[in-house]
Amino acid sequence: MKGEVELGPVGMERPDLDDLDRRLLSLIQEEFPLVKRPFLALGEMLGASEAEVIRRAERLRDLGIIRRIGPILDMRKLGSAGVLVALPVSERRTEEVAEVVNGYQEISHNYLRPNDTDYNMWFTISASEKRIEEILAEIKEKTDLDQLVLPTRRIFKIGVRFEIPE
């Protein structure tokens, strides 16, 4: 299965990764096995035990290197729509507004882009058009902020694979 692996923030102190860590990170970006015991299968591919792969994946998660392992779904084929939304959030309200926005399971990829424009908090919503309207109305009611709403017109899918530095 090709999926998504979110790696941690850039600019942090570089953790100590060995060859097995790097191979594990590379492998799970390319094909995470859809089997009953995926870490056993990964271990077989890497020449390591299931327990060792689990231990390393947990360590990489705890270090913030792996934030998420999951599928990439074509939400349009599931009857959903998508929008990119931006809010103008003052520095003093960043945490408060982020908590509101992050409270919706339909919202992903919430980013703060300070000094970019007046609209500095950007996030995506994937849901039915009716649900998107509900979420936007609730966020407006809870935050009283203007919203820049940019509906998805055309999707350009790219494959992202991060090279793991030595």
From TrEMBL:
Residues 21-67 form the Siroheme decarboxylase NirL-like HTH domain. Keywords: Lyase. Pfam families: AsnC_trans_reg2, NirdL-like_HTH. Its EC number is 4.1.1.111. It comes from Methanothrix harundinacea. It catalyses: siroheme + 2 H(+) = 12,18-didecarboxysiroheme + 2 CO2. InterPro entries: AsnC_trans_reg2, HTH-Siroheme_Decarb, NirdL-like_HTH, Tscrpt_reg_AsnC-like, WH-like_DNA-bd_sf, WH_DNA-bd_sf. Pathway: Porphyrin-containing compound metabolism. This is siroheme decarboxylase. The lineage of its organism: Archaea, Methanobacteriati, Methanobacteriota, Stenosarchaea group, Methanomicrobia. Belongs to the Ahb/Nir family. Residues 78-157 form the Siroheme decarboxylase AsnC-like ligand binding domain. GO terms for molecular function: lyase activity.
